[in-house]
Amino acid sequence: MRSSLMIFGFLLLVLSPSSQAQTLYEKYASLPIMENLSISPDGNKLAAIYNAADGPQVVLMDFPSVEFTPLVQLKKARDRIEYVVWSGNRYLIVALSYPEYSSGDYFRINRLYRIDLKTKEAKELTDKRFSKKDYYRYVNFRLVSALKDDPENILVSAYDELDRGISVYRVNLADSDFDKIIVNNYKIDSWYADNHGVVRLGLQWEKDKSTDEHKLTTWYRNADGEPMKALHTVIIGKSETFEVMGLSEDGNKAYVMSDRINKRESLWLYDIQNNQFEREVYSNPEYDLAGALTNNEGELSGVFYYDDYQRQHYFSDNGEQQTALIKKLLPEMESFVVASSRDKQRFIVQAESTTQIPVYFYVDLRNKMYGPPRCCKHKIQ
Question: Which of 338, 251, 245, 254 is nearest to 298 (CA)?
Answer without folding.
Answer: 245
